[in-house]
Design brief:
With 310 residues, this protein is of the alpha/beta class. The chain has 2 domains: 3-233, P-loop containing nucleotide triphosphate hydrolases (Rossmann fold, 3-Layer(aba) Sandwich); 240-309, Nucleic acid-binding proteins (OB fold (Dihydrolipoamide Acetyltransferase, E2P), Beta Barrel). Helix content is 26%, strand content 30%. The chain has helices at 42-50, 96-100, 109-122, 138-151, 168-184, 196-199, 220-225, 230-234, 244-249, and strands at residues 3-10, 19-26, 31-35, 57-62, 65-66, 81-84, 156-160, 188-193, 205-210, 213-218, 240-241, 256-257, 263-278, 283-289, 292-298, 306-309. The protein has a 6-stranded mixed β-sheet, sandwiched between helices. The chain has a 4-stranded antiparallel β-sheet with strand order 2-1-4-5, with no helix packed on it. A hairpin with a 2-residue loop joins strand 9 (205-210) and strand 10. Helix 3 packs across helix 4 (138-151). It binds adenosine-5'-triphosphate (ATP).
Amino acid sequence: MLLEINNLFFSHSPEKSLFRNFNLKVHKGKTIALAGESGCGKSTLLNLIYGLLDGENGEIIFDNKPILGPKKNLVPGEDDMKLVAQNYDLMPYSTVAENVGKFISNINLEEKKEKVLELLTVVGLEDYASILPKYLSGGQQQRVSIARALSVMPKLLLLDEPFSNIDFSRKIELRERLFRYVKEKNISLIISTHEIQEVMPWLDQIIVLQEGRLIQNDNAEETYNNPYNQYVAALFGEVNIFSEEEKANLNLTKKFWYPHEIKISNDGNEAQVLESRFAGSHYWNKVSLNGKNLIVYTPGKITNPIKISL
Ligand SMILES: Nc1ncnc2c1ncn2[C@@H]1O[C@H](COP(=O)(O)OP(=O)(O)OP(=O)(O)O)[C@@H](O)[C@H]1O
């Protein structure tokens, strides 16, 4: 076991506790998303794991050693663990290459140079080696910080919303290179995100937090197909939710239906098209089924009359 959190209690303020008896186990080499809506506790949990905050009770064991918070450990951080937080913490008067090489030994300078270039290539910044961080955008600085964290080959890498400042096309490239690199080097990764869709193909596991509670911990397919509740289902984008009563009346097998799961079909129930809009890979439609509005994705534009099946 690489990381174990047992019976953890933590609150930022006495009035409101965040984690109450929180438990989690993380195996070596896994790529894990820490998901949940803004404010559910993702950053706080990463800071606790990294030892930047003191838990009130319970323990965090990393690589068989307890993590001590700032009260007991004046210089927080572990050799084998790195956190890339949302403030990138770069050295302002050192170049991008010097920042990335900060933790790499100077014994063999040629080797160091090669390693820095390899890491800059992973994050797509190989052309920026000799530039000072202040000339980079927020997203580029974030990538320098990721490259620096990778340089120590940590056993566990914690990334707090690493793609938050990066535009779509860059994100796609970075995502593939980063996830491949950590798998190749057997680095375990916990990545916080409120956009699971963006990282889903690369995940071994999704941990879902809701107001500090761990409500689901499964692989991506299981989480998507059997979301614990409406909150989990909604993390994957638009979803149609049926009450127990509606489920029984319509004879449905489940309560949550993603828009692409609802089909136009001759042997379905009569429904009315309210809107049908082009959305790139599909048409986005709002249809009414017995007065209940549903979102349905179809390959082409749809017009009345229609029948839908669930
Ligand atoms: N330093 C702090 N003092 C008091 N409350 C805090 C502090 N930091 C966070 N909180 C509160 O703790 C809760 C969890 O915050 P946290 O930043 O961990 O959430 P998050 O899931 O990472 O959110 P986001 O996705 O927006 O980054 C929130 O209600 C937040 O307001």
